[in-house]
């Protein structure tokens, strides 16, 4: 329904319509002669007149400078001043010239670069190769189609064809075309292992992911099942575990069937063949009988090894498929969200980092738990048959172990859940730290954040210690349970008077190897199941999050673009801050720590209405301005039209596609060009017209590689104005029907803002529906209608002239604004910078990341082909992650040992393993001695005579044997507990020490490190790599050390019994070392590649979450999902190859261990009679035990080395990162009241951001007196914000010095320097925590002082109305406050510090004009006793300054009072003012 205002004609409407018709007619006439450049697809080959489409975007361009040698400011002034909105002839001539220039540029190469239409977005050959590789995924991929026929199993069943000829392409995964031999033996990976040994593996050597394991295929299948589950059971009743079972049940059943065969073979070997072989050794049966039992023993073990390989082959692929399906579905869910609700970015990244591995382990290891009960049941039956009912005493040990393990798993699961929550907090905190690191450094808040991280890490370590100790006890007990069970069984059996033969004893001990395996299965499987369940619950919590219900409908009137009909809309808001139980527990301590404040436990969501009863109708082609005070609901109004809010009542209608320019530009880590295209097809003319229209020509020209230049994460190497214009260019190129612009001119000065308004909003978008939010009231008269918002309501609506005539609140606001402008003209003291060096400049230059280091004075605005040719490689900002080669250096192990406490402590811990395993081995040796002693030649009465007894129960030393044998139980248990505690303490000491070291090193790194390193890479260190060091490395290493001693004891026993085995052992050792030394290289390389492949995925997830609003607005969900799928597939590929390489090695080492058992069995066969059966049985039992343990241990050694790559990565960070200057230098500490006067002196200051970049400050010299107010103006890249960089020492000077009150700041500690300065950045930064924590993290000030600061920044009323007032929550990025409110809170923060020197980096950009004028008064009053440096943005920001500093190309052009500069009409500043006047008085 149209509101009444829409039907009231006004003179302004008539004028606007008449003006439009005139322009439209003029353009239609010129269009026939190709005068008007249209943003539409075209190629150079097209000839003839172009048809002007109705929806094509018209773009006008800034006219070129007439004189090449004019200063940039002068050329801009002339260019802008020459423009008249009514001068259509000039307008069209300029466009025709620019059209010709674009044609010339395309012919000769834009900006001196070849115009590559097909592929020009990559920075180097490696990136191009990667793009080509990614394209192969589309060619190989298959789409999931639901099928109930048996044919869906055909690809898997083909693996059982004995031999298959490979038909796969060279770069495809070979497993898809392998036969039974390759599938069982993993021979398909042999070529890769050899290549790794010969040359080392590179990215191009690795095949692409199997089409059946791809993320897209499995996600589609899993999503279909999940949707069916939700449809059938409802959201509350839906079970993700039930869907997982449906997803993998066929493969799981097949794998478990084969696993049962391996258990049977493992059971048959010791219980039948070994028992009869040992019995045969003490009889006179023929040799052929012994040969039969020996062959049977060897063959059964061979079958077990082969079939076990099949089990892993099936399970590995099942695991990677479920892993891909779950996380692919989670990502697709994120794509359907407008925000994360009560989830944090850190929590989401942690899900992709750590839960992926746990879901995989859940599938691969979890099902093997059936091995434990099967072995236990079989063992009980066999032992009852073998030893009689007394054996049940021993079996109780096994049976009691199950509830013990169950309790352990429950406890582990509980501790894991608590640990994951704390880890999420730490990762989230690190993510926020990396996002806000510039501000933290400038405010010298490192200690506050470090203490918060330390507090969280302390809690995490406490939980990790508990969890590790529980798991360590479980791990230590598992191998001892069979030994203890044997001791109890044999003691009970002999104590009852029964005899025990060597065949019975060692048959049982041989079986204990299988029982040991079953116990290990239970240990690992229960942990995997519990952790897998937790991970699935975390996935489910995201899948069940409420999606925004689509409420946008299509209006019936085809001429209407947008209708709001009594619409009330709400945001999701945090309803609870801390869990009550946490509050209660915390209150017991002495106050709440900063970490507690920073780590809110967000529990629930509620909806808060922010827009009320909106009624508005917008016709197609209308330009609607939206204005209002801070927090009035302007950005929410835009979000409502995007469909990102919750519609509580009423209706919202929208017709056509949308383009969105956010208040804070969202920039991808990609090339400049890719950021504009955002997945759209590249059209050269259309693209370059957009570049011209958005005034980006000079910016691109100044970049190291033109538009191929890589833009860092969050646009780190762009100024705020460039980011905003890039965002605008993206919208313009997208060519949509409706343009939603959320304050796009806040980041640019009045002159450039005027250019963008006239040539883009009024020019290019003249036929588009545009909703234009702005605080800059001078543009409102040129809009068709104005919407004035107050507290979420449309307070006034109509044309500008009608609203002024109504003489209400809007009219008063506008008149106040114009009076201010006129007053400033009279004073002749206004100033403005001449480009968008703008609002978010701190993000670029203050961070030290700007690669746009000034402009060339004579750089052409019009003719780009004269530029020096640049290479795309020059524009690479982000450093490639180094892929380590070769062995893990000894220094890494040395560093880990030292972190654990040193060599003495580490040696003692290893000796506890020796004591634990030695006690179990001694029990077996003692049993052999006892069996060998027999009855001790004791004579017993049989009938009327006496005979020598063959029953060991008759041995006179029975009590001694029983006592020693029984006491060994206590020794074994005691050493297990000691070992577990010692190992847990040392490994966690190591990981905590490493965490602290790397955290300090990263945090103390200079800004250049953060600019050139993606946050995903750093998060990878603190999430996945720390998880490896905290959990995986200790667990792997503990099992490895335990098994090393077990193997040693086994080989010692075999060699003691059969000395002839020693020569064979030497040969086997050589063979083993050969296999391991060659193929551990491949395994290690795969692990390193897997480590590196994770970082891009994490960065992509982080980028996606931060840009959800923009991605959804442009409808690019599919593009980002596709990229995620490819990145995930790349990780899946090397992850799968790493695991298969481990199994490749394992199966060959198992066969090697089979040789050990075969040689032992053959030696016992040959040496029958010369070696006692009891000792032969001991050797056979331990040789059989080797078969499983040997390959597992070697695999563990390789896996330990592979997992040590995480230790190596952390070690490299701690050793290789450069550090800033010390925080405090005791000998150079300034006085407590320094700076007393606030005098600043720059002397020949030279500054460059990195060694390989040009100077941005080129020997500037000037002085600022005490209490002076200095305004700084200049173009983008002129060095304005670099003054702040030098002042805060974010980058050390290349030459010269800066002095404050006569003290050279380069000799001071950074904390001493930065804590005495204040900055109000242009990007408002708020941290997770409370309002009070954001203003005063060190709690230095009283509540009264905090309230006073809020009052002076006009935020007191807003905060006082919040339920928790100063303790009200601030969520991630401060999203529960508007951008303007965040900026005001940043000002309150600076007011509290009350330092002598204040640096304002265009700090009022996001604030409405009225509040801005109030803030300026506050700044003048509150900082009257301060020296203030203000980078100019609005007219009134520097009008009252003592002096104006004009910078150009890193040099001081002018530095004088505004009045003196204005007196000289030829001064650069006077020309800027002239340009600003023409802009403001349009």
Report the biggest beta sheet as strand number plus sense, adding barrel if it closes.
6 strands, mixed
Tally the beta strands: 26
| Beta-strand residue fraction | 5-15%
Distance between the termini: 34 Å
Principal-axis shape: elongated
State Rg: 38 Å
Lateral arrangement of strands in the main beta sheet: 8-9-10-6-11-12
Structural class: alpha/beta
Q: Total helix count?
A: 45
Uncertain runs are: 1-93, 108-123, 575-604, 827-875
Question: Which range best describes the helical content: under 10%, 10-25%, 25-40%, 40-55%, 55-70% or over 70%?
Answer: 55-70%
Q: On the 0-100 scale, what is the average pLDDT?
A: 76
Describe this structure in words.
There is one protein chain. This protein has 1482 residues and is an alpha/beta fold. It is 58% helix and 10% strand. The protein is built from 45 helices and 26 strands. Helix 25 packs across helix 26. It is elongated, with a radius of gyration of 38 Å. The two termini are 34 Å apart.
């Amino acid at each position: 329904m149209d509101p009444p205002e829409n039907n009231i004609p006004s003179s302004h409407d008539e004028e606007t319509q008449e003006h439009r018709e005139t322009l439209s007619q003029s353009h239609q006439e010129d269009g026939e002669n190709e005068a008007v450049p249209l943003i539409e697809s075209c190629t150079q080959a097209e000839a003839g007149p172009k048809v002007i489409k109705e929806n094509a975007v018209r773009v006008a361009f800034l006219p070129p400078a007439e004189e090449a040698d004019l200063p940039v400011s002068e050329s801009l002034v002339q260019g802008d001043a020459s423009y008249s909105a009514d001068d259509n002839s000039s307008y069209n001539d300029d466009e025709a010239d620019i059209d010709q220039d674009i044609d010339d540029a395309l012919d000769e190469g834009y900006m001196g670069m070849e115009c590559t239409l097909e592929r020009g977005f990559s920075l180097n050959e490696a990136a191009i190769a990667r793009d080509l590789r990614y394209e192969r995924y589309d060619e190989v991929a298959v789409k999931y189609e639901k099928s109930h026929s048996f044919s869906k199993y055909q690809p898997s069943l083909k693996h059982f064809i004995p031999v298959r000829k490979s038909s796969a392409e060279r770069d495809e995964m070979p497993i898809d075309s392998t036969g039974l031999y390759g599938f069982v033996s993993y021979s398909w990976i042999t070529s890769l292992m050899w290549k790794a040994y010969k040359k080392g593996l590179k990215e191009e050597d690795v095949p692409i992911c199997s089409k059946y394991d791809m993320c897209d295929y499995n996600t589609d299948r899993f999503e279909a099942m999940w949707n069916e589950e939700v449809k059938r059971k409802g959201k509350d009743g839906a079970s993700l575990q039930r869907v997982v079972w449906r997803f993998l049940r066929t493969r799981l059943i097949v794998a478990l069937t084969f696993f049962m065969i391996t258990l049977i073979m493992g059971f048959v070997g010791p219980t039948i063949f070994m028992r009869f072989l040992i019995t045969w050794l003490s009889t006179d049966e023929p040799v052929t009988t012994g040969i039969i039992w020996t062959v049977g023993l060897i063959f059964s073990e061979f079958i077990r090894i082969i079939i076990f390989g099949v089990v892993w082959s099936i399970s590995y692929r099942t695991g990677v498929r479920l892993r891909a399906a779950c996380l692919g579905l989670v990502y697709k869910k994120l794509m359907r969200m407008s925000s994360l609700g009560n989830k944090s970015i850190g929590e989401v990244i942690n899900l992709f980092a750590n839960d992926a591995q746990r879901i995989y382990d859940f599938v691969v290891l979890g099902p093997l738990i059936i091995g434990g009960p099967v072995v236990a049941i079989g063992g009980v039956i066999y032992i009852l048959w073998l030893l009689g009912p007394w054996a049940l005493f021993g079996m109780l040990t096994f049976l009691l172990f199950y509830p013990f393990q169950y309790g352990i798993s429950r406890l582990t699961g509980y501790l894991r859940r608590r640990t994951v929550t704390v880890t999420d907090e730490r990762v989230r905190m690190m993510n926020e730290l990396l996002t806000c690191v510039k501000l933290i450094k400038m405010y010298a808040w490192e200690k506050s954040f470090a203490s918060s991280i330390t507090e969280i890490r302390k809690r995490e370590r406490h939980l990790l210690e508990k969890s590790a100790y529980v798991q360590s006890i479980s791990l230590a007990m598992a191998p001892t349970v069979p030994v203890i069970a044997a001791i109890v069984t044999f003691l009970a059996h002999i104590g009852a008077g029964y005899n025990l033969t060597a065949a019975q004893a060692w048959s049982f001990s041989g079986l204990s190897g299988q029982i040991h395996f079953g116990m290990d299965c239970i240990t690992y499987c229960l942990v995997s199941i519990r952790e897998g369940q937790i991970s699935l619950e975390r996935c489910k919590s995201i899948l069940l999050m409420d999606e925004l219900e689509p409420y946008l409908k299509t209006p019936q009137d085809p001429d209407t673009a947008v209708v709001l009909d009594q619409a009330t809309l709400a945001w999701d808001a945090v309803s609870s801050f801390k869990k009550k139980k946490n509050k209660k527990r915390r209150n017991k301590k002495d106050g709440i720590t900063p970490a507690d404040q920073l780590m809110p436990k967000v529990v629930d969501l509620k909806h808060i209405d922010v827009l009320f009863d909106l009624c508005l109708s917008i016709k197609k082609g209308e330009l609607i301005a939206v204005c209002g005070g801070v927090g009035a609901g302007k950005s929410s109004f835009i979000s409502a039209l995007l469909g990102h809010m919750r519609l509580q009542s009423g209706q919202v209608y929208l017709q056509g596609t949308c383009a969105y320019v956010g208040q804070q530009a969202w920039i991808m880590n990609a090339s400049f060009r890719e950021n504009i295209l955002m997945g759209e097809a590249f059209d050269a003319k259309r693209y370059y017209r957009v570049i011209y229209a958005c005034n980006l020509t000079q910016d691109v020209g100044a970049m190291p590689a033109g538009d191929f230049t890589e833009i860092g994460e969050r646009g780190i190497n762009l100024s705020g104005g460039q980011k905003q214009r890039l965002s605008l260019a993206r919208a313009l190129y997208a060519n949509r029907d409706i343009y939603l612009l959320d304050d796009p001119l806040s980041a640019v000065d009045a002159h450039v803002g005027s250019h963008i308004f006239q040539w883009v909003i009024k020019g290019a978008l003249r036929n588009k529906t545009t909703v234009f939010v702005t605080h800059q009231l001078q543009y409102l008269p040129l809009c068709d209608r104005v919407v004035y918002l107050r507290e979420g309501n449309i307070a006034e609506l109509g044309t500008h002239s009608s609203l002024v005539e109504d003489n209400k609140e809007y009219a008063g606001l506008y008149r106040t604004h114009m009076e201010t402008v006129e007053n400033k003209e009279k004073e002749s003291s206004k100033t403005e910078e001449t480009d968008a060096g703008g609002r978010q400049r701190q993000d670029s230059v203050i961070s030290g990341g700007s690669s746009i280091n000034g402009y060339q004075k004579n750089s052409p605005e019009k003719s780009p082909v004269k530029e020096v040719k640049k290479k795309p490689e020059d524009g690479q900002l982000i450093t490639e992650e180094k892929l380590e080669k070769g062995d893990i250096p000894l220094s890494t192990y040395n560093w880990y040992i030292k972190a654990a406490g040193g060599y003495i402590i580490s040696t003692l811990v290893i000796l506890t393993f020796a004591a634990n395993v030695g006690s179990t081995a001694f029990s077996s040796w003692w049993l052999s001695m006892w069996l060998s002693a027999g009855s001790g030649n004791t004579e017993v009465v049989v009938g009327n005579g006496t005979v020598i007894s063959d029953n060991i129960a008759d041995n006179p030393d029975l009590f001694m044997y029983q006592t020693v044998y029984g006491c060994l139980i206590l020794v074994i248990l005691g050493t297990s507990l000691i070992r577990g505690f010692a190992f847990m303490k040392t490994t966690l000491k190591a990981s905590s020490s490493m965490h602290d070291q790397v955290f300090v090193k990263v945090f103390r790194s200079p800004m250049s490190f953060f600019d050139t390193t993606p946050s995903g890479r750093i998060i990878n260190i603190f999430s996945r790599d720390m998880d490896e060091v905290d959990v995986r490395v200790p667990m792997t290493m503990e099992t490895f050390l335990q098994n090393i001693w077990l193997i040693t004891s086994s080989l010692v026993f075999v060699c003691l019994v059969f000395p002839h085995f020693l020569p064979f052992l030497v040969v086997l050792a050589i063979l083993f070392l050969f296999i391991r030394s060659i193929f551990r290289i491949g395994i290690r390389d795969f692990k390193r590649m897997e480590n590196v492949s994770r970082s891009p995925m994490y960065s992509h997830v982080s980028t996606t979450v931060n840009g959800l609003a923009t991605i959804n607005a442009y409808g690019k969900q599919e593009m980002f999902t596709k990229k995620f799928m490819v990145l995930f597939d790349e990780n899946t590929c090397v992850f799968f190859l790493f695991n298969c390489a481990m199994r490749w090695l394992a199966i060959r080492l198992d066969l090697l261990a089979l040789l050990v058992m075969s040689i032992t069995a053959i030696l016992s066969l040959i040496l029958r009679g010369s070696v006692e059966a009891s000792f032969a049985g001991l050797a056979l039992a331990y040789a059989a035990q080797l078969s499983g343990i040997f390959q597992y241990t070697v695999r563990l050694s390789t896996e330990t080395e592979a997992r040590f790559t995480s230790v190596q990565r952390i070690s490299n960070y701690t050793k290789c990162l450069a550090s800033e200057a010390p925080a405090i230098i005791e000998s150079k500490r300034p006085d407590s009241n320094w700076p007393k006067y606030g005098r600043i002196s720059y002397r020949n200051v030279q500054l460059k951001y990195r060694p390989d970049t040009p100077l941005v400050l080129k020997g500037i010299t000037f002085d600022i007196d005490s209490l002076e107010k200095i305004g700084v103006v200049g173009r983008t890249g002129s060095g304005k914000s670099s003054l702040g960089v030098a002042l805060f020492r974010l980058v050390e000077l290349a030459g010269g010095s800066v002095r404050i009150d006569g003290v050279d700041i380069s000799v001071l500690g950074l904390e001493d320097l930065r804590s005495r300065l204040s900055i109000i950045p242009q990007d408002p930064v708020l941290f997770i925590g409370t309002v009070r924590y954001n203003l005063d993290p060190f709690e230095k000030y009283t509540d009264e002082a905090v309230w006073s600061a809020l009052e002076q920044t006009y935020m007191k009323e807003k905060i006082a109305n919040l339920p928790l007032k100063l303790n009200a929550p601030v969520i991630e990025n401060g999203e529960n406050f508007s951008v303007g409110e965040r900026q005001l809170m940043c000002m309150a923060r600076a007011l509290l510090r009350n330092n002598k020197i204040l640096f304002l980096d265009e700090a009022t950009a996001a604030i409405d004009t009225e509040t801005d004028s109030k803030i300026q008064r506050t700044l003048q009053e509150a900082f009257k006793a301060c020296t203030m440096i203000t980078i100019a943005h609005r007219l009134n920001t520097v009008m009252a300054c003592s002096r104006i500093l004009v910078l150009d190309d890193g040099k001081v052009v002018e530095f004088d009072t505004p009045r003196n500069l204005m007196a000289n009409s030829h001064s650069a500043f006077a020309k800027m003012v002239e340009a600003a006047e023409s802009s403001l008085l349009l």
